[in-house]
Amino acid sequence: MTHSLVGLALGELVERALPAAANPVLARTRRRALLLTGLLASNFPDLDLILTPLLPAPLGYLIHHRGHTHTLLYALPQVALLLALAWLLWPAARRLVRADRLARHAIAGTALLGMVLHLSFDALNVYGVHPFHPFDSRWLYGDLVFIVEPVFWTALGVALALARRGALRWLMLALFTGLPVLFTWSGYLQWGSLAGLAAVALAVALAYLLWGTRAGLHAAVLACAGFVGVQAVAGQFARGQVRAALAEAAPGSRVLDIPLSSFPANPLCWSFATVSTGPAAGQYGVRVGVLSLAPGMAPVSSCPARFGGVPGSAGTAVAWKHSETHSLAGLRALQRSNCHVDAWLRFARVPSLAGGVATDIRFGAPGEPNFSTLPYAARAGAPCPAPVAAWGYPRADLLGR
After folding, report:
1. In a domain, 85, yes or no
2. CB neighbours (10 Å) of residue 368?
3. Which of 6, 134, 237, 282 has CA 20 to 30 A from 38's CA?
4. What is the number of domains present in the chain?
5. CA-based angle 243:246:250, to the nearest 5?
């Protein structure tokens, strides 16, 4: 939904930035073409999901989703394919681009920017992207916003609803104001988060009422950018708290990575993981927990349990949920001896290994399988997975690479 709203908002903004078309028929076609181009371009890279059957689960999803189609280099042929399909399948759009040079450039620019925005929004969360492959195949992580962020839905959804007319406007407004209420009632959002989302919706609506549709869209974009900025500052404070807590829990450890994921629409509550070496020689540790940046106002116990909160930890700033230590030599030997683990380690950022099963505990507690869980011991004698993309190992530091 986020990618779709971003693409539609892009198309709407480009349309309203262009001079009015003299021909009413071409004007309608231009607007539809820009909206559809923005919508499709902002979702196009996720077509890599059709490649997931190339490898056995979960490796197909882990290796091929957010893969080649999520790189800047491969954005160019995707833009060419999207525009070619529009040219072949949409006669009205074909007539438009033949007749109107400005529309032709606007549609091509919208397609390219839609692809880039897809990568940019994917880069904001803890999952990560590697946009500069093949020149740099390392994963990059924003660690700023929840992977399904209602602030984006509310701001962009309300702005786009107000740009519509008739029943569609009211249906969209009901959807994008009703969803946060439903999520709060279901325990996924704090009441403070709901109040913040209501403030965003009111700000966008006020800009629309005072200055029109374009101002409403601009207010929505500013709300999204402002929220990301707030998350960036809050994330720095969160990392500082985690480092201090780890130094107290495991003195002498050397921190390698602190993956962060905020709770939805909530700059105060964060889920985190740590990857560290030591304190004993030849060992590494992974830990997960939850923290609050304002424990006096919103203790860890108030962070929604539906998204990993820790009930019963009232008044605390940091609550540890799990920790484990392993041998560095054992991890490296397993990578060399098990090609399934080697492929899995091209994705895993916080590797948990227990009982012949590997899980990236960014996405769930050990013992609770998630989409990253690999039963590597059971596959030790199976043929090696192929094709495996040459992404950089997130834990190259542990592997000695």
Report:
1. yes
2. 10
3. 134
4. 1
5. 145
DSSP string covering 181-202: HHHHHTTSS-HHHHHHHHHHHH
Burial annotation 131-170 (CB, 10 A radius, 16+ → b, else e): bebeeeeebebbbbbbeebbbbbbbbbbbbbbbeeeeeee
DSSP-assigned letter for residue 217: H
Distances from the Cα of 223 to the Cαs of 99, 151, 177, 204, in angstroms? 37, 8, 16, 8
Question: Which tens digit of pLDDT belongs to each residue from 319-359?
Answer: 999 999 999 999 999 999 999 999 999 999 999 998 999 99
Closest CA to 275 of 317, 309, 339, 326: 326
User: Residue 62 belongs to what domain range?
Assistant: 2-229
Query: Is residue 399 included in any domain, yes or no?
Result: no
Residue 243 makes CB contacts below 8 A (sequence gap 6+) with: 255, 258
The per-residue pLDDT for 87 is: 95
- pLDDT value for 299: 87
Which residue in this structure is represented by tokens 């009111």? Answer: 202
Render the burial of 80-110: b for 16+ CB within 10 Å, e for the rest: eebbeebeeebeebeebbeebeebbebbbeb
Domain assignment present for residue 67? The answer is yes
Could you tell me which of 362, 364, 351, 365 has the C-alpha nearest to residue 398? Answer: 351
Stretch (H or E) spanning 359? strand 357-360
**CA-to-CA distance for 12 and 9, rounded, in angstroms?**
5
Nearest of 146, 238, 251 to residue 193 by alpha carbon: 146
- Kindly state the helix (H) or strand (E) to which residue 352 belongs, with its residue range: strand 351-354
Indicate the SS3 state at residue 313. Answer: coil
The token duo for 97 is 């681009």
**Burial of 213 by CB count in 10 Å (0-12 exposed, 13-18 middle, 19+ buried)?**
middle
| Cβ-based neighbours of 233, under 8 Å, separated by 6 or more | none
Q: Which two tokens stand for residue 36?
A: 């559809």
Residues of the chain with pLDDT under 50: none
**Residue 365 pLDDT:** 81
d(CA 97, CA 29): 10
